[in-house]
Structures are given as C-alpha cells and as structure tokens.
Specification:
Blueprint (H helix, E strand, L loop, with lengths): L7 H11 L9 H16 L11 H14 L3 H13 L10
Helix pairs in contact: 3-4
C-alpha cells in the first residue's frame, strides 16, 4: 500500500492524536446539532451580488478554490464571512 503524504496541518493533527490529546465531546448530540445549525446558517445563501474583479485576482481565487476543492464562489463567500466575523485578519508584511 502506498504511503500517503500529509501536509503540515495534517501532521500536527496526527501527532496530537498520537499523544492522546483528543477527548470525547460532552453532550455529543447537542454539540452536533449546534454545529449543524452553524453550518446551515453559514451556507444559507439568500442574496445575490455582482462584483467586478481584476482578471488576475479572479484567476488566483479560482486556483485557490481548486486547491481547496470547492467552487470559487463558495471560497469568496467563505472569505467574506470569515472577515466579517473577525476570523480573517490582515497580515503585516515586513
């Protein structure tokens, strides 16, 4: 069987698991229901917009979306949602 390569994040998760750092979630059903509700609300799309982008930026977004395995419109929506919820911040370049 072929050994699968892991990226840095996947390696960190595996090492954490192997160090026995993972614990069961208390009130599992309630936690699943809460997370399903978050996902439903996040993915619910009820407004449509048109936006003009530079061709180069759109090509970059489409390439990133392919890497992430999602449609580019979903990636744009996710980026905007993360920014508005404060989970996406500007990085200072040295």
């Amino acid at each position: 069987m072929k050994k699968q390569k892991l990226d840095l994040e996947e390696k960190d998760i595996l090492e954490s698991y192997e160090r026995n750092e993972w614990r069961p979630v208390k009130a599992r059903r309630a936690e699943i229901a809460k997370l399903q509700n978050y996902a439903r609300n996040t993915l619910q799309k009820n407004k449509r917009i048109n936006i003009r982008l530079a061709e180069r930026d759109l090509a970059g977004i489409q390439a990133k979306a392919i890497e992430e395995g999602m449609p580019y419109q979903t990636l744009i929506s996710s980026i905007l949602h993360k920014y508005l919820s404060g989970r996406l911040t500007e990085r200072k370049i040295a």
